[in-house]
Specification:
about 180 residues; mainly beta; 14 strands; five-stranded antiparallel sheet
């Protein structure tokens, strides 16, 4: 049996190929870790496709909804959405909007676009949207629902179809991650 000791006290033990076991005197709840470490991680992946057509109505990307309950008062949430954005075949500036929501509000909007000079070719790219959120909860932590919406922007060419998690070339997997960081 192997032992890891610090200051004459056993911190962990390991027998053979078994996983190490923390000693009963180790209390991780009251431990102090360096700034910037992850204390929890949640994720959802989906192959659900969202097609907007050529209107500007926002679609809820509901397959990517996830919940997290913060564990520490001084933490921040690092939120990331990644997926294929498809902009229909048209010429001109092709704009779309992705909105991050916390509990159905607290919106943060990402407006993006790409110039398409060939009206016969659709434009598809993997895009990432990143948000840092300070939850400001200090005790009695409540669950937060993280969601996203997607839409063709009003300034886009009216003939352009828009899609999230779709590029016409097979199945795409979108990702939504959240990390609580202290």
């Amino acid at each position: 049996m192997a032992e890891l000791q610090l200051g004459g006290k056993t911190i962990a033990t390991q027998t053979g190929n078994q996983e190490p076991i923390f000693a009963s005197n180790v209390n991780l709840v009251s431990a102090t870790f360096p700034a910037g470490h992850v204390i929890q991680f949640q994720k959802v992946t989906s192959t659900t496709e969202y097609l907007t057509g050529n209107n500007t109505t926002a679609l809820a990307l509901s397959a990517f909804d996830l919940q997290i309950t913060p564990k520490q008062s001084n933490s921040k949430l690092l939120i990331l959405l990644s997926g294929v954005i498809n902009r229909g075949a048209n010429s001109g500036n092709i704009l779309y909007e992705v909105v991050s929501k916390i509990n159905g509000s607290n919106d943060l909007s990402f407006l993006s676009g790409k110039m398409n000079n060939d009206a016969t070719v659709e434009v598809s790219n993997v895009e990432q949207f990143i948000r840092v959120y300070e939850h400001n909860q200090t005790s009695s932590f409540s669950q937060l629902t993280l969601s996203w919406t997607f839409r063709r922007h009003t300034n886009a060419n009216t003939y352009g179809d828009f899609a999230f998690n779709f590029d016409g070339n097979g199945t795409n997997t979108g990702l939504h991650y959240v990390m609580e960081i202290v």
